[in-house]
Amino acid sequence: MTTSTARVLALLEILQGSGRHTVPDLAARLGVDERTVRRYAGHLQDLGVPVESVRGRYGGYRLLPGYRMPPLMLTDEEALAVLLGLLSGRNTGPATTSPAATESAAAKIRRVLPKPLARRLDALRETTGFTTRPHPTPPPETHTLLALAEAARHQHPVTLTYTDRNAHTTTRTVHPYGLVAHSGRWYLTAGVGGGGVTGGGAAAGGSSGAGGAAEAADHVGPVGSVGSVGSVGGAGSVADSAGSADSADPADSADPVGESGVPADEGIRTFRLDRIAALTVQPGSFTVPPNFDPVTTLLDGLARTPWAHEVSLRVHGSVEHIRKHLPAGIATLSPVTSEGAGARTGAGREADAATGTEWVHVRLRAERLDWIPSVLAALDRPFVIEHPTALRDLVRALAHRLHENATADEPPHPPM
């Protein structure tokens, strides 16, 4: 905390004490000149603290009668929840603020807690470690995050100045549908009309896919909370092999007409908040498509990101089981009709209905194929590779290695 900030807080403490204080008295107690006292009083007024200036020979400053800073009364469990929220947000959650802001917030909470509880929370903070690595993603501007959240809640259009990974800067007006926290980053899902893009470089448009070819992240996991602000948890290393963190860019494509209930003249774009240079909330309003889900839209866009390989499979198993190994941000799943499911008829179909299994069409895109055979082996379900042919060779090679290891009398390199 800077010296000036500490003195502004000290002035607030003095004013909360009692009555009116003259400027010379305040200057003496704070160790500053009278002009600085007036500036500090102005800072408090800017923060919404009702500091009243009293004119006259015995004038000075006082707080409006009845005003008191509300005490922070937390139970042990509530204090633990707040501290763990700050710590986990800093280490594993989406980037929201600078580390300094997190530390400052924790310090302020600690100062108003009872000393025994503060000491216990300090012990927890100093002895707690996290297995998930912090994301180096720069946090978005606080104004950007809060302004977009408010615009999405009240359904006001916003004009964005956005720079993609190719350093192309565009300015467009969009309809903010919702925010999504995913793998350490914040994303905006927004409706975009057919035109109105201005700025240097190419407009943010290109390949097809719901939600746009959103920038791939380090981890893709199951959906967390769903709403105007959604959260997607990170899980597993599958996405690390599917594509690198900066190989695709959001805001690249429109949602196909008819999907997600989007009007025919409006597509969906996904924007990374840390790449928004400026925004202005515009007058007017819009209507969010019925049953629109920002989280599902983002994950579907991630799964459709145009990596080097497009993979198509049929797997005989339940969607729930397949999703444990291929999360929503990696693959799209759809039931296979009975005509295309293969040779299972009669008793086979009845067994499928009894166990809740079926043939499921699995589509995914990946920068490399070498990680997919081990995932198929972990599925432990019948599957058919439709394409690419190279994946079949990799699966055969893995099967050969597994067979050799399973039938070998001893390892090729015995331990010393």
TrEMBL record:
Protein keywords: Transcription, Transcription regulation
Keyword Transcription regulation applies: yes
Region annotation Disordered: where it falls in the sequence: 236-264
Record-level Gene Ontology MF annotations: DNA-binding transcription factor activity
Record-linked Pfam families: HTH_11, WCX, WYL
Protein name: HTH deoR-type domain-containing protein
Limits of the HTH deoR-type domain: 4-63
Domain of life per record: Bacteria
InterPro entries noted in UniProt: CBASS_pafABC_assoc_protein, DeoR_HTH, HTH_11, WCX_dom, WH-like_DNA-bd_sf, WH_DNA-bd_sf, WYL_dom
SUPFAM superfamilies given in the database record: Winged helix' DNA-binding domain (SSF46785)
Positions with biased composition (Low complexity): 237-258
Gene3D superfamilies: Winged helix-like DNA-binding domain superfamily/Winged helix DNA-binding domain
Signal peptide: none
Organism: Streptomyces angustmyceticus
